[in-house]
Amino acid sequence: MSQTSSRAPRKAIILAAGLGKRMLPITATIPKPLVKVAGRTLIDFALDKLHEAGVESVVVNVHHFADMLEAHLRTRETPHVVISDERGELLETGGGVKKALPLLGGDPFITFNSDSLWIETQEPNLQRLVRAWDPDRMDILMLVAPLSTSIGFEGRGDFHMDDGGRLRRRGTDPSAPFAYAGVAIVKPELVHGTPQGAFSANAFYDRAIAKDRLYGLCMEGQWLHVGEPQAIAEAEKCLAASQR
User: Fold this and answer.
1) Cβ neighbours of residue 150 under 8 Å, at least 6 residues apart?
2) Structural domain for 167, as ranges
3) Residue 97 near residue 111 (C-beta atoms within 8 A)
4) Which among 19, 32, 87, 161 is placed 20 to 30 Å from 93, CA to CA?
5) Residue 7: Cβ within 10 Å count
6) CA distances from 30 to 15, 21, 79 (A)
7) Peptide bond just before 102 cis, omega within 30 deg
8) Alpha carbons 29 and 230: distance in angstroms, whole number
């Protein structure tokens, strides 16, 4: 077993508590992770990819239509799912990870946005991310998608990446070639000392950037950003075309 594979994360968190406001009116009756694309829920896509990458235990934080999401998760056998209950207070991405940290343990873990969806090529991207993880150099390793091939993303990009994979934010630049694709490997040390309550996971990224230890891995295949109702049909069209 290689050094990196021996350090492969065995735990992950799927960030599934959000209100999904951009997905209205669909999310007026169901949580966004249960939105279906090509007949399969977004959260099942995520759980399947984590299982394929060797993740054994997945924390899922719940808030919006929490009972409905928990009922769906009980139908899964693998990977093992643990609930982080945010019914009392929605904690955003960073606060959600911090609340779940006791369930995630002291080793690096994977964070996975519940709406992160992509088409693979040869080697699955999550397995590529795990193989590329080097905790001696990295505090965070993000999966990033090139804007030039992504579907459904209309932003100006999040990051520039140098030849060694180190990331820097777009900042004041008019655009950047890569968007965060919603999946990362994170060291738990970055969570320690962060604020109580609700805050963004950007706090973790900024800590890694300050030490030049935020890295990216360019996605192979095609990222499908399913952020709004109209993006579902476009994603389904791309998935169908990839299977021909």
Assistant:
1) 179, 222, 223, 224, 225
2) 3-242
3) yes
4) 161
5) 17
6) 16, 11, 23
7) no
8) 17
- Helix (H) or strand (E) holding 100, with range, is helix 92-104
Q: Kindly state the greatest CA–CA separation across the chain.
A: 49
Going by pLDDT thresholds of 50, 70 and 90, the confidence category of residue 3 is very low
Taking CA atoms, 72 is separated from 53, 65, 195, 208, in Å, by 22, 11, 32, 35
How far apart CA 228 and CA 22 sit, in angstroms, is: 5
Round to whole Å and give the CA distance between 58 and 47. Answer: 8
DSSP string, 194-243: PPSSS--THHHHHHHHHTT-EEEEEPSSEEEE--SHHHHHHHHHHHHHHT
Domain count of the fold of the chain: 1
Number of H helices, E strands in the chain: 7, 13
pTM beyond 0.85: yes
Which CATH number is 169's domain given?
Answer: 3.90.550.10
d(CA 160, CA 201): 19
Contact 224, 239 (CB under 8 A): yes
Distance (Å, whole) CA 190 – CA 199: 14
- Residue 160's Cβ-side half-sphere holds a number of Cα atoms within 13 Å equal to 10
- Between strands 80-85 and 57-62, the pairing is parallel
C-alpha to C-alpha distance for 93 and 77, rounded to whole angstroms: 26
Query: What pLDDT digit, counting tens, does each position of 180-234 carry?
Result: 999 999 999 999 999 899 999 999 999 999 999 999 999 999 999 898 899 999 9
What H or E segment, with its residue span, contains residue 5? helix 3-6
